[in-house]
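User: Can you help me understand a structure? I only have the sequence.
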Amino acid sequence: MTEQSELPRFVGMVLVLLIPSFVLWMLISPWLAGPAVWVCDALFTLWMPEVVDSVQLRGTQALVMTLYGELDGAVVTAAQAGSQMGFPVDVRLLSYSIPFYAALHFSTPQSGGFSSFGWGLWVLYPLIILGLVCVCLKNLMMGLGVPFFAQSAAFVPSGHAIGLVYQLSILIVPPLAPILLWAWQARETPLLKQFSRTSSTGPKIPE
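Assistant: Let's start by predicting it. Here is the structure, written out as tokens:
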């Protein structure tokens, strides 16, 4: 296969593999969500015991149950309100990086196959968990307000910091991380070497 045919073949394969990758991802999303939700449950109940009661798995959602409720429009303790406030987060907002990475990885010849793909998952999944933590923090901050920042038993990041990491977790990391991971793993393939030569020599300008 010539160098000139590498890029069109790669783009075509990515477009073809995106569909089955995302279909499979939709089918297994509840199983993908499980470990991330369980880690968040252990983390938040230890980190913020004055605010978080539990983080529960509901299908593909992480439901953050708090020790507060709402009464006449005001945030009060769950005992006073007679109910608990919960904030759902759909883990698929973060885990779509996996099917995107799968399409890139398996569209690249000599990329390492399933073994290399497995190592890639070990890199992406902690980022999904970290992103879920950031989204949960944003929901708690927006939903509880003063009680969230008034915790005495936990270090609470500033509102600006939470807003920044939330934006990174939703807008930047899920699409960018699989591209960077794929580029690193495929750096020795003919496709990436062709990209490197093109970028180093620059575009040809006709005289």
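Now, to help you interpret it: The helical segments are 3-47, 78-81, 92-95, 97-106, 113-144, 146-149, 159-185, 190-201. The mean pLDDT is 91. Let me know which part you'd like to focus on.
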